[in-house]
Amino acid sequence: MIEVLTGFGVVVVVIAVGYVLGRTDALGPGARRALANMVYLVATPALLFDILLDTDPREIFSANFLVIALSALVAGFLGFLLLRLRGSNSPDSLIGMLASSYANAGNLGVPLAVYILDDAAAVIPVILFQVAFYAPVTLTTLDMLHASKQSNLLRNVLLAFRNPMLLAAIAGLLIGFLRVPVPVFVGQPVALLAGASVPLALMVFGMSLVGSTVSLTGDVALVVLLKNVVHPIIAGLLAFHVFGLSGHALFTLVVLGALPTAQNVLTYALRFRTNERLARDTGVVSTLVSFPVLVAVTVLLGPG
Known about the structure:
The protein has 304 residues and is an all-alpha fold. It has a single domain, classed as Na+/H+ antiporter like fold (Up-down Bundle). It has 15 helices and no strands. The protein is globular, with a radius of gyration of 19 Å. It is found in: Membrane. One of its GO terms (cellular component) is membrane. InterPro entries: Mem_transp_PIN-like (IPR004776). Keywords: Cell membrane, Membrane, Transmembrane, Transmembrane helix, Transport.
């Protein structure tokens, strides 16, 4: 328990460093975007690839994957239904559905998995499900609701496969499954780049907090409650009662369920010009709320 809580302290300190850098503009204009692109395009894909080289693919596609997928779909459906009942239209409610269940598994999930779960590979099923299935299907539905002439599931799937994290995960899974030896001149540079992922991601998040303003509307409060509280509860209930998981496996799935809303949701909202404020505000609020929730989860379910 002390080790895990110490890990939280490490995370907070690195985030604080990023906040100070952003507040003082020490790295100059455009630094946040440049570092965020470094994390998204290079460092985190390298980390996922590096992890998967030593991971059995069967560990990825296990009961954990089913719990992750089902809990996200249930939480998302609740978000969609409740927002519709509150008077939102279908496109707005779909963005709310994603905000209720689409986790920040890459930029924040990886570093938190390292320090809370001691297993960065735990987030890979989340990334695979969200990027390869959840996002393409939802975006296609939004296309159809907007009567887009280019509405096409295949187009959205192909768009998802441009995500460098997904490509790195698939490449790592294939190499791990086929037992292909990785040359030193490939493996070692990847490992070096992977080492930059966690600290850079946390500092970028700290920088993103500078000047953040939110409006805590009823819809935002509802979606944050679903993402930070209801989603992990659903994951825990499915893991324990349906799949018979307990101990560290149960703890891992509840932690993954409690991760905050991903910034991808805002990207999708901006793309369709739909419920942008909800997506932006939920991303900020759910991230701040996730820390005390994760501490509570760790106290209740974490290693003793």
